[in-house]
TrEMBL record:
Keyword list, A-Z: DNA-binding
PROSITE patterns from the UniProt entry: HTH_TETR_2 (PS50977)
One Pfam short name: TetR_N
Originating organism: Salirhabdus euzebyi
Protein's name according to its UniProt entry: AcrR family transcriptional regulator
The keyword DNA-binding belongs to this UniProt entry's keyword annotation: yes
Domain of life: Bacteria
GO molecular function annotation: DNA binding
UniProt DNA-binding region: 34-53
Location of the HTH tetR-type domain: 11-71
Amino acid sequence: MKNARKEIQRARMWRYFLDAATEVIEEEGLEQVTIRKIAKRAGYTSSTAYNYFKDLSHLKFFAAMRFTTDYISELPLYLKKGTNTIDSWLYSWECFCKHSFNRPEIYAIIFMDDLGGSVDELLEDYYEIYQEDLIGLPEEIKPIVLELNFSKRSMLYLQKAVDEGFILQKDVDLLADMTLMLWKGMMNTVLNQRRNYTQEQAASQTISYVYEMVRRVVVPDKQNEINYVPN
């Protein structure tokens, strides 16, 4: 009973602080998030905030996750568009690019920044508090959503493409790693304003690169079964 009360209290405090962090991000931007500012808005001291979050990077990570609910809710719809695993995987990339380049600073924190610890543990902590974010997700999609290592996430999904004969086992790691590097390269380009891409251009260019990479590894006899066409 005592542990149950403690967990309820922890969940309640998390929501106070993350609601405050979300408000600051929406009003002032991610770069304005500080422990002191979030604690004050939540009605507590900074020392209280540190009782629940190891450091600012962790608080930013958890707050950033609150902005991924649209992506998570749309992902199953995109996956359903595909008639085979490769098509579905390309549609999932389309969904991810659409949302990640719409909020690049959010997705960079989640998938690129050094968080100084186990990302798996952070994600587990997050979904313990926000279990409702997973409600309604098909069971086969939950392992993808719950895996923050994007390369590993792709490997999990692409394994089915091996079973369907679209790609060889030896190319799974290559395809997963190379497509992740393509996205990270474009994300760095956008964040550092190296090119004048709009959000739509960055997303479209990235998915085109991913598509070309896929075409290079799909076995010749299966090429004509890929129905996905980049916009």
